[in-house]
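can u do me a favor
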C-alpha cells in the first residue's frame, strides 16, 4: 500500500527512473500505484490472498527492468531530489530478488483453504 501511495505522491520521482526503452511512462506509474493498492487490499481477503501474493511476485519481477536501468544508465538519468545513489541502486537489486522470493513464499504459506491459485 505504501508503494502505491508513494507512486501517487511523488510521480516525478518514479518517472525519472522509468526506463526510456519502455512505453507509456505516466500511465505505467499510475497503473502500478492502483495495482499495489488493489493487491494490498486483496491480501487481507482470505479468498484472494494466494492470488494476490502470486500477483505481487509477478509485479516485482516486472519491476526488475527498472532496477537494472537505474544501475546501467545511472549517469544519464536526470535524478530528482533526493537522488538515488548508484551504490544504493546496486544494493536494491539483490533486495528486490529477496522481496520476490518472500512474496512467492507467502503465496505458498497462505495456500490453506483460500481457493486461490
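np, heres the sequence
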Amino acid at each position: 500500500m505504501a508503494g502505491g501511495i508513494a507512486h501517487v505522491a511523488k510521480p516525478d520521482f518514479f518517472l525519472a527512473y522509468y526506463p526510456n526503452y519502455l512505453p507509456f511512462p505516466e500511465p505505467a506509474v499510475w497503473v502500478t500505484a492502483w495495482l499495489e493498492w488493489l493487491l494490498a487490499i486483496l491480501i487481507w481477503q482470505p479468498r484472494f490472498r494466494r492470488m494476490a501474493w502470486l500477483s505481487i511476485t509477478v509485479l516485482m519481477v516486472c519491476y526488475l527492468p527498472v532496477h537494472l536501468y537505474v544501475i546501467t544508465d545511472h549517469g544519464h538519468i536526470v535524478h530528482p531530489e533526493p537522488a538515488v545513489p548508484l551504490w544504493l541502486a546496486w544494493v536494491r537489486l539483490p533486495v528486490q530478488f529477496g522481496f520476490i522470493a518472500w512474496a512467492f513464499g507467502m503465496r505458498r504459506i497462505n495456500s490453506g483453504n483460500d481457493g486461490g491459485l
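The chain has a mean pLDDT of 90. hope that helps!!
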